[in-house]
Description:
This protein is mainly beta. The protein has 1 helix and 4 strands, in the order αββββ. A 4-stranded antiparallel β-sheet has the order 1-4-2-3, with no helix packed on it.
Amino acid sequence: MKIYPLGDILTVKEAESLKISTEFNSRYGHKNIGAIKSGEYRSPKKGEWYISGAIPSAYRAPNDLSSKYIIGKLVKFKTTILTEVVRIG
C-alpha cells in the first residue's frame, strides 16, 4: 500500500480524529500521517483529500473541484526498520 505525504496541514478536527497532538501542526509536523487511495476517482468536494502532482501528494480541496482526481483517505502509520544479519562463509 502506497502512503502519500500531505501537501496541506490538518484541521484540528482531523488531528483529533487521528488522536494526534494539535500543538505542532504544519505540513511537515506529523511524519506518521499520510493518505492512501480510497478507490474513488472523481471530482473532490470541498474539504476532501485528493492525490495529485508530478511527485504525488495529498491535498485538501479548497472548494468543489471540476477535474477528476484520486480521492485520498487520511491514515496514521508506524514505520518499522527491520535488519537482517547474514553470515557469509
